[in-house]
């Protein structure tokens, strides 16, 4: 039986990435996974683990090349938040910390509100507030 899900991402600079993610509100797991080559982030109330590895270490795990995020999207990591204001706040924090957002926060399908930002290494993060009471069929 599957017990956990860990998301592993390659980054160019562990120190800069740690600073970026803590500035936008992610927690660092200071007991495990932190070294000169890695950082362990805990995301959300369920503490989903996002491991950041410097590119040489990540390549060693995957035995392959790293996707060029300037050319294409590798993945869209979606995070649920508690309010529309929280979507706006985190996007602004991401931009202030050096990230990019070309996506104006807005309503989608009448029951979702969200925005996308790109971190320092081009990974795309989707922030979503979902009002299930407005969802069709609820």
Automatic annotation (TrEMBL):
Coiled coil: none annotated. It comes from the Bacteria. Residues 3-130 form the VOC domain. PROSITE patterns: VOC. InterPro entries: Glyas_Bleomycin-R_OHBP_Dase, Glyas_Fos-R_dOase_dom, VOC_core. SUPFAM superfamilies: Glyoxalase/Bleomycin resistance protein/Dihydroxybiphenyl dioxygenase. This is Glyoxalase. The lineage of its organism: Bacteria, Pseudomonadati, Bacteroidota, Chitinophagia, Chitinophagales.
